[in-house]
Design brief:
four-stranded mixed beta sheet, 26% strand, L-arginine/glycine Amidinotransferase, Chain A, globular, 9 helices, alpha/beta
């Protein structure tokens, strides 16, 4: 039976807190793990000034070490709660639960994380939704369709809180690369989104950015910034591999409709200049910002476009403080602020 009473709140709605997981798997950031720990402390510090943090740590020893680091950095530790649980990775956007509203209050959804259909070592991450739901004292529902578990990462979807969702064909519909749900069609996904997220309208983009380990996550491409406005990244350099797919996505958005049949307002955001490290292109994007109570945290890349991106995002959020956080080390793990976090609506 379709439970149409569920609603997937927009990220700018009032939050209880943010779910994070302190990095303990250095292999996600080869050669940069020490820098990552302090970059992460800085991220925690910014969130903890305005709301609660639910911080997953691998064990008691790491919890003690993290507390020391937080105190050294003058973090408001009163706003930090710990869940002790060993994980494979720290990407809470994807392995953590998605918290939705229903007629009884809040419900956590387990979208059956499977390592982006790419990595085999995700079995510890599979237990994160239950740990978080227990901590929040809310029910956990496993997302199923036609009797089978459905796999969708939080980074693959974005909501305006009114019934429209953004996602990408590359991530959810590619026939042979990182296939999350075999033989799923747009209709199948739309049925799942309607039942579990209360979504009545899906805007499908095409391909993601080059170097994206997740194969097309939407949170590196485009995001709702209010119920009627979408911000989307564009590449100015015509020689760059991202130029054509991002132009295609822009055209799709210009032709798209919201749940009420009206056209969304489209704002364009530049891309940082191409970033390579150790022979690999890394998927740096300003679209990977995190909206929290009173602030927006934006990844920056020591790039001349940082300032332009911060100003554009500031125009989109006139009532919030816009804070740039250097992500030049974090991005070596193929994700930044949004990928590492999952908001918990009140």
């Amino acid at each position: 039976m379709v439970n149409s009473t569920r609603r997937f709140p927009a990220e700018w709605e009032k939050q209880q807190g943010v779910l994070l997981c302190f990095p303990h798997n250095g292999s996600d950031w080869p050669g940069k793990y020490e820098a990552i720990k302090w970059a992460f402390v800085e991220f925690i510090k910014k969130v903890a000034t305005v709301e609660e943090i639910v911080l997953v740590v691998a064990d008691k020893k790491l919890q003690d070490r993290v507390l020391e680091m937080l105190e050294t950095a003058h973090v408001n530790v009163k706003n930090v709660s710990f869940i002790i649980h060993k994980t494979n990775r720290s990407w809470m956007r994807d392995s953590g639960p998605i918290v939705v509203e229903n007629e009884n209050g809040r419900e956590a959804l387990n979208f059956n994380f499977n390592g982006w259909a790419k990595y085999n070592n995700y079995l510890l991450d599979k237990h994160v939704p239950l740990k978080v739901a227990d901590f929040l004292n809310i029910p956990l529902t496993q997302v199923m369709y036609k009797g089978k578990p459905v796999v969708v990462e939080g980074g693959a979807i974005d909501s305006n809180g009114k019934g429209t969702l953004l996602t990408s064909e590359e991530c959810l519909l590619h026939p042979s690369i990182q296939v999350r749900n075999e033989n799923f069609t747009k209709k199948d996904y739309e049925a799942v989104f309607k039942e579990y997220l209360g979504i009545t309208n899906v805007i499908w983009l095409g391909d993601g950015i080059e170097g994206d380990d997740t194969h097309g996550h939407i949170d590196d491409l485009c995001r709702f910034v209010n119920p009627t406005t979408i911000i989307t990244v564009v590449e100015e350099n015509k020689e760059d591999a991202n130029y054509k797919p991002l132009q295609d996505n822009l055209k799709r958005l210009q032709q798209a409709k919201l749940e009420n049949g009206e056209a969304p307002k489209i704002v364009t955001l530049p891309m940082p200049k191409r970033l390579d490290f150790d022979g690999i292109r890394i998927p740096a994007s300003y679209a990977n910002f995190l909206i929290i109570n009173k602030c927006v945290l934006v990844p920056t890349f020591n790039d001349s476009n940082d300032r332009i991106a911060l100003n554009i995002i500031a125009d989109c959020f006139p009532d919030r403080e816009i804070i740039g956080i250097s992500a030049i080390d974090l991005i070596w793990g193929f994700g930044t602020l949004h990928c590492l976090s999952q908001q918990i609506p009140v």
